[in-house]
Amino acid sequence: MAIDQRHFRDVMGTFATGVTIITTVVSGAPHGITANSFSSVSLDPPLVLFCLGRSSTNFDAFMETDNFAVNILSASQDKLSTHFAMFEGDRFDGTAWNAWETGAPILDGVISAADCVLEARHDAGDHVIIVGRALRAETVLDAAPLLYHRGRYAALASE
Ligand SMILES: Cc1cc2nc3c(=O)[nH]c(=O)nc-3n(C[C@H](O)[C@H](O)[C@H](O)COP(=O)(O)O)c2cc1C
Q: For residue 30, what is the domain's CATH number?
């Protein structure tokens, strides 16, 4: 019996996550998308993954590139998360960032980031699993994380 998509999404949404913005640079142009499908995968070598929807307007950029950065958002960055999920213009206009090794944008105000080179892509239904090998990973801010649960932003109970 096929599971209704909305139902499946609602059930999976009970899994609380952090929030990331995954960025990349293609021919000098930065691209970025909010994603909560991020996971660390392996310590040796240091691998991470995220899942990218095929319908994303950034899909082609992430298929062309061999670099990406994972930006782990702090509790005060809920508006930035919405911006990188919804805004249809240049998402980097007015957003401060710098680059580490690969050139992928590391955004100001994030708790930590991992600068990655592409390791593998795996087809997965209407998404593609993108695996990266971290060249550099740093915690740059001692702040509470932004959380996401049941379609809403949340904060740690202790914060
Ligand atoms: C909290 C949150 C988490 C998201 N996680 C993902 C994700 O893991 N993968 C993905 O492809 N899209 C994810 N999205 C949706 C994208 O951020 C974006 O809205 C969607 O891809 C459409 O915009 P685009 O065409 O610019 O990519 C998420 C959105 C939000 C608000």
A: 2.30.110.10
